[in-house]
């Protein structure tokens, strides 16, 4: 038997792999920080034999509450992923699985590899109204890719979408895959949106962390979503270059895409504090709910807090109201709609092995259907302008 994780986005420590019924593993820390949650490993063993895999000390991970009611994902071909029976006793996460083939991968969520990221850039750049540029280099010298979709012309709204500041939140890049698919298609609503808006998309803010198999941090051990107030070219160049581009190009709507370890639903938190923008955010969420059954507004960080649950998140974490998160920074500096989207690891209603359903399709569809609330918000801001113009001509 062989257990390996020495590949793009792999991560696990092997403590014991002598027999299939008593495999013992441990989560690995991010390369330069004590965060640990992400895992992704391959087991080469005997098909048809029951395997019991213990991930010990999971209770000491960064988000221990993430393990209850959670199911590990497995795949034989790394294309089709399914849930495998998983138990959690408060400390050990146990996988009980009889693999049908001699090689199987297990992961915290469906990986989005750097190889796939490169393919995503190439496919998008082939469209004549999509331009690929490099904003700068990461800590390890990887390119920080930006896709510009549509044409930046006077009067057009600038929509920024960034994803995967936290590399283990791979659902964020699956979301981008859906968004790109929709924007680059001949779909009428996308064409119409591109007549009044241009998209700036950073599909992966943290390619180093993604390749390293980190969960939360970049190669220098920094949580990028805590460095927007003062990014450094040395330790957080990813934020430094994206923030610079935001200031150069401007922004009218900002979306930061994440995954949440604990809440089993997709939700949006607004970084805005003005009443007008909070209202816009509420309207956006309702429109999104209409467009996609997997988006909801009943459960979010505010509802958790109201229920007395401690939350630590991207935007409204008690200790981080210092404009250090992307959504807070953009809301404060640009005074525009600035939203944090979270999608769950504890995915609801996904398939078992026999069904071979792919949970990432939920993320892809959420990406595609965000066109509707975006188009709606763009149209109301245009109405605002024509109202203002009408008032001016009367006055
Ligand atoms: Zn996150």
Average pLDDT, all residues:
92
**Biggest sheet overview:** 7 strands, mixed
Main sheet strand line-up:
11-12-14-13-15-17-16
CATH class label of the largest domain: Alpha Beta
Strand % is: 15-25%
Class inferred from helices and paired strands:
alpha+beta
General form: globular
Radius of gyration: 21 Å
Give a list of the ligands. Answer: zinc ion
Please report the distance between the alpha carbons of the first and last residues.
Answer: 81 Å
Beta-strand segment tally? 17
* CATH H-level superfamily of the largest domain: Zn peptidases
Total domains, how many?
Answer: 2
* Helix proportion range: 25-40%
* SSE ordering: EEEEEEEEEEHEEEHHEHHEEHHHEHH
Give the CATH topology of the largest domain. Aminopeptidase
What is the CATH architecture term of the largest domain?
A: 3-Layer(aba) Sandwich
